């Protein structure tokens, strides 16, 4: 492509095409709807999360340190793969959505490692962290919920004479801080994004990228699979809830990437990393609409995985498996 063609693509005439305006409208409406839902229900969704859910495994007799070890290993392994990718291809790799998502998953495991370290300290010094008392409390709590009996806190409301309550004096460690809320948000965001990148790469892009210009290597294959594998294994160990509301964060993440691409093309770049981002074709609005809609099944796939995990493990291991606090209320 010569300089005249590049100037024509980046010129004002290009950005005033009708399909560009329609795509911008799709992007604006999607972002506005996501922000509206976030402001309306975001705080309510995060309030149902309990601090122990962030660092306690979903397996009753599994010490939190094992979840800490796994998270630290996942972070180190992903950091090494990202380093190898940048060393091989340069920082230009962050031009692609794959590296955005991969880096986000790595950030999640870094934050999760920090939260797990804090949780292990709490677990070591709290009386409830002792194995016998912890198992007794969790078992009693599960039996009350399954049998429909009111919990101690509910009895306290119905009977004025009962004053006992598990968290009678909340401490700072029992309240979610910025780091804990950020961890839950990133978890829901990168899970959907990992599903999207891996499915699109293996099912849509790779079949059409065979040839001399592209060669599938072990490093490229790992970049498009390790993120989802580590997250699925993480979900098999942790107690973090995964609700449909997280789709809002996932959509905002993808919208931010689209805006990033548009800004780059308005300033200096003349090509798109993915062919379905091209705004010069009249089919661009359909492509952008399809990209927005595909977020639903990609995120829904992870929701189904979490639901299948809860259903299968609670049936096969009723005495060993523990649900998240917010999920217990829905049983």
Q: Spell out the helices and strands N to C.
A: HHHHHHHHHHHHHHH
Share in β-strands: under 5%
**Coarse structural class:** mainly alpha
Give the C-alpha Rg.
23 Å
- Distance between termini? 60 Å
**How many domains in all?**
1
Strand tally is: 0
What proportion of the residues is helical, as a percent range? Answer: 55-70%
- Count of alpha/pi helices: 15
Describe this protein's structure.
The chain is mainly α. The protein has one domain (3-328). It is built from 15 helices and no strands. Helix 9 (178-205) packs across helix 14. The N and C termini lie far apart (60 Å). The model is unreliable at 1-9, 127-146 and 151-173 (pLDDT under 50).
Topology:
Blueprint: H1 3-10, H2 12-15, H3 18-47, H4 52-55, H5 64-89, H6 97-125, H7 131-147, H8 152-158, H9 178-205, H10 218-223, H11 226-237, H12 247-267, H13 284-293, H14 295-316, H15 325-328
Helix pairs in contact: 3-12, 3-13, 5-6, 5-11, 6-9, 9-11, 9-12, 9-14
Provide key terms for this protein:
mainly alpha, 331 residues, disordered N terminus, 0% strand, single chain
Summarize it.
The chain has 331 residues and is an all-alpha fold. The protein has helices spanning 3-10, 12-15, 18-47, 52-55, 64-89, 97-125, 131-147, 152-158, 178-205, 218-223, 226-237, 247-267, 284-293, 295-316, 325-328. The chain has one domain (3-328).
